[in-house]
């Protein structure tokens, strides 16, 4: 046999022999793949439950009475005595116009009134002596009344050439400075009154506004304070829709928020009482388990039931429908009661990932040293 033929023969037979030996178990197969790290997680068992329906909205926190302040007449602004954020008391002087022209108008009206008063008195004496007629007396009296009205008007205008605080509150906006020329009714500043407190204002569509009632409990979270949760109650529900937005105004009192500045954006969840269909029945899970929310659907990761710690399990994604959220529990459809789903640590899990169930005490420390898998940063958890 030639050397070339011998080499070809060996090249064909060797792989076949290796394959046969592996099939018979005489040569163990080698795993050359790198196993993905095990993700520590907590699990929750799906239970059958009922949760009160909730209405969610976003609005702005501020004084219930926001009062725009303006001069009754136009003129040149002489002084603005407060800045934005200043706390003022009822009756405090806030701004004034240049009074020279206004005072001259009052003086002129006073002079006209004094003359009309003298003329009317003289005609009245002449009428007694039958020198002046009754018609002349009536004309003089009418002139006097007109002069009195002009004087009252000028005096009132002078009084409204200054702006005083109608109630105690906080200056929300300062819109002009000294030296500005303003016309009648031009807003000078906006005052947030404290007499009726402060509220979170939201706009609700008609289907939600019909379900909400004054007194309904609410939970409020502010974007600027993500770590804090405030409680409140519905104070007022509007009876007519805003012509621009088509929504109904709803005001919610917020407990413990007196020190917060006006203008904060807050998200509110209102628990509806006594509305038809207000309670949602279904499978109840922790909101920590819900990921990749899209409208009323979300993804959860399930693991095999009947296994206890520290057995490693495979997590599989499943899409579910969210029918309601109340506090830290969500009602879902698509999973049977008794199923086990990943809760804390779910954001680090990928389809088919190996997970190890750990206790809540050790999970936080474990996640601090466990890197999130590629792509997990784009997944969004559902917020209650």
Describe the structure.
23% of the residues lie in helices and 40% in strands. It is of the alpha+beta class and 384 residues long. Helix 2 (100-128) packs antiparallel against helix 3 (134-159). A hairpin with a 6-residue loop joins strand 13 and strand 14 (248-254). The N and C termini lie far apart (81 Å). It has three domains: 39-52 and 281-378, conserved putative lor/sdh protein from methanococcus maripaludis s2 fold (Beta Barrel); 56-64 and 190-271, Beta Barrel (Elongation Factor Tu (Ef-tu), domain 3), CATH 2.40.30; 75-182, no CATH class.
Walk me through the topology.
Layout: H1 3-24, E1 39-41, E2 43-45, E3 47-52, E4 54-70, E5 75-80, E6 87-88, E7 93-97, H2 100-128, H3 134-159, E8 162-164, E9 169-174, E10 181-182, E11 187-204, H4 206-209, E12 217-222, E13 225-241, E14 248-254, E15 265-271, E16 279-286, E17 291-294, E18 297-303, E19 312-314, E20 316-326, E21 329-333, E22 340-342, E23 354-357, H5 360-368
Parallel strand pairs: 1-23
Antiparallel strand pairs: 2-22, 3-16, 4-11, 4-15, 5-7, 5-10, 6-9, 7-8, 9-11, 11-14, 12-13, 12-15, 13-14, 16-21, 17-18, 18-20, 18-22, 19-23, 20-21
């Amino acid at each position: 046999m030639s050397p070339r033929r011998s080499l070809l023969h060996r090249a064909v037979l060797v792989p076949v022999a290796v394959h046969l030996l592996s099939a018979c178990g005489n040569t163990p197969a080698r795993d050359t793949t790198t196993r993905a790290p095990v993700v520590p997680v907590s699990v929750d068992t799906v239970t059958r439950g009922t949760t009160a329906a909730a209405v969610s909205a976003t609005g702005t926190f501020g004084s219930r009475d926001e009062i725009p302040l303006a001069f009754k007449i136009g003129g040149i602004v002489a002084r603005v005595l407060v800045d934005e954020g200043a706390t003022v008391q009822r009756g405090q002087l806030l701004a004034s116009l240049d009074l020279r022209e206004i005072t001259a108008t009052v003086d002129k009206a006073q002079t006209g009134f004094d003359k009309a008063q003298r003329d009317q008195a003289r005609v009245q004496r002449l009428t007694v002596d039958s020198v002046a007629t009754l018609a002349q007396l009536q004309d003089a009296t009418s002139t006097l009344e007109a002069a009195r009205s002009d004087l009252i008007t000028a005096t009132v205008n002078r009084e409204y050439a200054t702006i005083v605080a109608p109630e105690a509150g906080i200056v929300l906006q300062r819109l002009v400075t000294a030296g500005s020329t303003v016309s009648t009714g031009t807003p000078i500043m906006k005052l947030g009154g404290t007499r009726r407190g402060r509220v979170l204002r939201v706009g609700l569509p008609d289907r939600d506004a019909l379900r909400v009632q004054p007194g309904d409990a609410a939970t409020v979270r502010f974007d600027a304070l993500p770590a804090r949760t405030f409680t409140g109650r519905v104070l007022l529900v509007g009876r007519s829709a805003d012509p621009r937005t088509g929504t109904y105004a709803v005001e919610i009192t917020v407990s413990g928020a007196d020190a917060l500045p006006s203008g904060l954006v807050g998200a509110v969840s209102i628990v509806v009482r006594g509305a038809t269909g207000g309670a949602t029945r279904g499978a109840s899970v922790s909101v920590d388990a819900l990921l990749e929310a899209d409208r009323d659907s979300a993804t959860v990761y399930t693991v095999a039931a009947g296994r206890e710690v520290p057995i490693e399990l495979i997590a599989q994604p499943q899409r579910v429908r969210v029918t309601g959220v109340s506090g830290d529990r969500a009602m879902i459809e698509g999973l049977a009661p008794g199923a086990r789903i990943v809760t804390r640590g779910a954001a680090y899990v990928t389809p088919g990932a190996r997970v190890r169930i750990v206790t809540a005490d050790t999970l936080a420390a474990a996640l601090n040293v466990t890197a999130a898998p590629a792509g997990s940063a784009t997944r969004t958890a559902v917020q209650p």
